[in-house]
Structure formats: C-alpha cells, structure tokens
Model the fold of this input.
Amino acid sequence: MKLTTIFVLLIFLLGCEKSTMNGMNNTNIPPVKTKQLTYLALGDSYTIGEAVSQDQSFPYQLSAGLSKQGLNVAVPEIIAKTGWTTDELQAAIKAEGLSAKFDFVTLLIGVNNQYRGYPIDTYRTEFRELLQTAISFAGGDKTHVFVVSIPDWGATPFGKQSGRDLGATSSEIDAFNAVGKEEALDAGASFTDITPGSRDASANPLLVASDGLHPSGNMYKNWANNLIPVVISSFK
Done:
C-alpha cells in the first residue's frame, strides 16, 4: 500500500514539473531588440538630395538599405544645404551646437569649392578640419566615418550647357577628390569613390534629377549600394 502511494505521488510530481516547464516554454518572451544605430550625414545639396524626395536621397536610401541588411539604423540626422562650401558647412555645424555622438557619419563636401574656383589648398585645410569634426561626432571611432567623393556635375545637362570647359571641370574634380581621399585615409576614415559612376549621367538621363543638375534617386541608390558593404564591414 505504501509503495503504491509513493508511486502515485512520484507520477503527480513529475506531471507538475512537466506542466511547469511547458508553461515556461509558452511564455511570451519579448524578442531581443538590436541596438538602433544613429547616423549623421554632413554635406551639401548631394546630401540633402536636391530635386528628389527625401526618401530618395542617399542618406535615407543608405539607412534603409542597411536596415534591410540587418543593421537597425535610425532616420538620419542631416546637416547640409544646397550651395555649401567647406567653410559654410563648418560654420553651420558650429551654429547647430550639436553635441550628440553618432554610431557613424558620412561626409560629402567640396563641389561648390571647385565650382566657385576656391583654392584647393584651402579645401585641404578645411576638409581636414571637417574630418576631425566628423570623427568627434562618431565618438572618436575613425572607422565609422565614411567620406564620399565629389560627383562630376559636368556630365549633367546643366554642365553641358554651362559654357565651362568640361575637361577642365573633370580634372579639377579629380584633383579635389585626390585631396579628399588622401586626407580621409590619413585620418583613418573610409573613402568611397562614386565619381566614375556619376559620369555615366552623360549617357543615361535616368541618373539625373528633373533639374538637370543633381543626381536622381537611381544614382543615389547606386551610391548607397556602394556604401552599404563598407558600413556593414565596419560594424563586424
């Protein structure tokens, strides 16, 4: 009789344990959320996406593309305006009084320096200072600063109608980009060269926005696609 009672109790206790374990397995445990990365984009008209909708600008397409690849990226913070040169971007950053740190930063600036005929030596000095500012915004992490080259506006309908020597324009843009690349790499930042692709606009109108000067969403998508693997690699 005693043995029978003990056997029944054991079955009862085992049943309770199994029920408890099943209950734990069925508990609605919230999924683990990945950290949302913050992103600061510094630049000029090419960064705000002049003549295209905001979601077609390269920072927004970059953010969306990275999110699709598994990096949870917040809506970009943007400090940029059409027509800005390096010194104007510097002044705007100071006026903004931004003190936040970001997980990564992009920097694309210099086309208006070239267009206005500003000295390339001045560009080097101011670009170097902007790079240090970008690194500071990235919390001191040089590998999370991504410089984008200046596109060749001479390949656009506006460029062709400008009356400028387009060969000289391309050479000057190449020279500015050589400075940007040298300074970026010396600082330990990344440099992505989108300039050759920008010259495809000469034969492909789908790469130009409705204003005949700025990139279309299609071209910005190409820029974002070039940047996506570089940014992902920096977070591994």
Q: What stands out?
A: Strands lie at 39-43, 77-80, 104-108, 145-148, 190-192. The first helix runs from residue 2 to 25. The CA atoms of residues 36 and 72 lie 5 Å apart. Confidence is low (pLDDT under 50) at residues 1-27, 29-33.
